[in-house]
Amino acid sequence: MTRDDSDPRETDETTRTDDERSRQTLPDGGAVNDVALDPWGSSTISDYRKLFEEFGIEEFDEVLPDVPNPHYLMRRGVIFGHRDYTPVADAMREGDDFAVLSGFMPTGAPHIGHKLVFDEIIWHQQQGGDAYGLIADLEAHSARGLSWEEIDEHARDYLLSLLALGFDPEEGELYRQSDNRTLQDLSFELGSKANFSEFQGIYGFDGETNVSHMQSVVTQMGDILYPQLEEPKPTVIPVGPDQDPHVRFARDLAARMRFFKVTEAYASFELADVERPIVAAAYEAREAFAEDPETPRCGEAAEWLDEAGRTQVDISALAAGENALSTAVEKLENAGMEPLRPRVRFLDANATDDAFEDLIASIDGEKRRYDEHIDAFDLSVSDAETLAREVELDNGGYGFLPPSSIYHRFMTGLTGGKMSSSIPASHISLLDDPEEGYDKVKSATTGGRETAEKQRELGGKADECPVYELYAYLLSGDDDEFAKRVYDECVGGERLCGGCKEQAAVLMEEFLEDHQEKREEAEAMLDDIDISLESDRRGVAPGDD
Questions:
Q1: Residues 375-418: pLDDT tens digits?
Q2: Backbone dihedral region of 261: left (phi > 0), alpha (psi from -120 to 50 degrees) or beta?
Q3: Whether residues 81 and 224 fall in one domain
Q4: Of 72, 21, 18, nearest in space to 408 by CA
Q5: Which one of 89, 271, 313, 334 has the lowest number of neighbouring Cβ atoms within 10 Å?
Q6: How far apart are CA 126 and CA 132, in angstroms?
Q7: Domain encompassing residue 275
Q8: CA gap 482, 49 in Å, rounded
Q9: Domain check: are 43 and 126 in the same one?
């Protein structure tokens, strides 16, 4: 921490900066070395890159060029990852329907870390999305043991801040889990597709976990899919990376609720996902082995793969190696003289008899019917998926699209560790007195050098500085040039910590003053919203699990 002199306070804002440099200015944050994702844990993430490798989270930079008018959190890399965000970006760009939903567990006062999610919901709403904000009161009661009175108090605070920041309740929906019977009915249906072994594997639940906690997880799955109840649409869930297990589980359940699964096939038998690219490669190479390339036979493909495929096809790059090759060859051998011919397959997952018959009648062109699937030879995969969803919706199904997600970095606490509601000095509450917010920033840890002289000589460490995070995540607002200038002056040795903190403290005080004035204005708006602010539930907090 630096004990130094001051910089002149800057108040002028200028033009945009280039996006790439702005993204480079952000710290990785975090304080632990593991990347275990626990929705109810207290760990931050120290190495975000491991999330790409271990959990399949994709880098947001890859989809950023496709996002119209991206939010500054996207431009600066605060939103660093996503799961299947492309359908949402496409819908936004093309003016199609899409939705955004996120929830808040009312365990304490909302703080500036929560503002990231508030902003993400509001921005998507402003881009034309159907917006949903929910109070996860069932989760707060079952997983954190809060009383209903405590939940009521905190829920009001979250809702007021969300409204004050710009959420439009006339164009969006706010609800409490405990009051939404439609949500609970959906959650009940989703629960029929989940099992206890998954709760163990995903969340580490065991024989000591209370049943209400498990029920709250299924309720969260219902929350994630709730925006699609009226019609399927791309839906994004803005969350921190610790919530990714919920998103992955919801995507699995969305698929399990579908009437039909659409796959690519090459014969009457079914291929595993790892076998399909191997057989596809054999079909593409049919000129090399088929007596009649117009009608290659499964047995011919098996022989070619078994003898020549290892050298002519990079099996390891296509699938899971030798085991997948062996099982694919065995299936082809068993099919013998059956023609090897591409087709789209509709697998019966949960379809009613009427839906199955309706699908058969709806397929144009050549088709083959089997006991549990239908093969169509004149449809593309995308057309087949559209048809399957239409038939499902016409026959009372949900037709869910897999929900998408975006992930933002955790804010570092003002004391240098984790930002936590249980450590008052580590965070700034949106309810803090503005002068208290000023004082907390002035007392914050920085990324500065030991002395002003070393700071001027070596430059500051903005990438490790909680105060710089305040500029990048909040205080610079939409002005990328301002955030860049703060960073450049810090690492260049021009900006000293005393003046930098003074400027940040003043901006924070102004933000809190403005936000709390808008919260007061939102009181009347909240009274007009159809959402219960006082629960009539009775109960005691569940035991520790």
A1: 999 999 999 999 999 999 999 999 999 999 999 988 888 888 77
A2: beta
A3: yes
A4: 72
A5: 334
A6: 13
A7: 260-394
A8: 27
A9: yes
